[in-house]
Write a structure and sequence with these properties.
Length: 257
């Protein structure tokens, strides 16, 4: 019965070669489709789905060689044309146009002295202006610094004065508060004493007034009684006196004839 010989293989998992193979031992990784063989010192890929055939390699090599030759010819022609254009830029002295480095350098050199003079004049003017501005700014900063120092001193003195005034006002307010509190306490005490005294005095006055009213009523009653008695006595006396007067008149009357 025939036997099937099967080489080492990996059907799932990671791509890549096995870690070791014996010399002449083969292994196939289905994941990346590559066939490997051990050569006694390493594991070498030798074929598979990603390896081209010899005929295909030959055709691809021929095509690449032809493309390289065509690109080389094109590059050489382009470099020659570019060299010509660079030479024209560097050395063309046609006066019709300022279109080469030679003409640009010549024009620049002709204007260089004028430009240098203008730059020197501008630099001198700028240096003079800068020096004047530095002097002005330095002087102005000195004045500002002096004014600022004076202002700081004045403000510090003003703050000290204001704080002193605040402290004085606070002390006076505390003293006045204490004095007013003491005066209010004294006034409350005096008012309470006066209320007590006035209440007691009013009680005495009320009692004295009641006594006086009672005494006056008794006196009026006594006077009225005495007056009534005197009126009765006087009436009786007057009646008796009238009778006696009438008797005397009768006694002295000589009569008629």
């Amino acid at each position: 019965m025939p036997s099937n010989i099967r080489i080492k293989r990996r059907l799932t998992g990671a791509a890549g070669a096995p870690s070791t193979l014996l010399s002449g031992e083969q292994a196939f990784n289905k994941v990346d489709g590559i066939l490997y063989i051990g050569d006694g010192s390493a594991v070498v890929p030798i074929g598979g789905a990603h390896y081209a055939t010899a005929a295909a390699l030959a055709t691809e090599t021929s095509n690449r060689t032809s493309a390289i030759s065509s690109e080389n010819a094109r590059a050489v022609a382009a470099e020659l044309a570019l060299g010509t254009r660079i030479d024209n830029v560097l050395s063309n002295v046609d006066g019709a146009a300022l279109d080469s480095l030679t003409e640009v350098v010549t024009a620049f050199q002709s204007a260089d002295s004028t430009l240098n003079g203008a730059i020197s004049s501008l630099a001198a003017s700028a240096a003079s202006g800068l020096s004047a501005e530095v002097s002005r700014a330095t002087a102005a900063e000195g004045v500002i610094a002096a004014n600022l120092a004076t202002e700081i001193t004045d403000r510090a003195a003003a703050v000290t004065t204001v704080q002193s005034n605040i402290n004085t006002v606070a002390a006076n307010l505390a003293s006045e508060t204490s004095a007013r509190t003491s005066a209010d306490s004294t006034l409350t005490s005096n008012l309470s004493s006066e209320v007590s005294r006035a209440t007691a005095a009013e009680g005495v006055i009320a009692a004295n007034l009641a006594t006086e009213i009672s005494d006056r009523a008794a006196a009026v009653s006594a006077v009225t009684s005495s007056l009534n008695s005197e009126v009765s006595r006087a009436s009786a006396a007057e009646s008796a006196l009238s009778g006696r007067v009438s008797a005397l008149e009768a006694e002295i009357d000589g009569g008629s004839f």
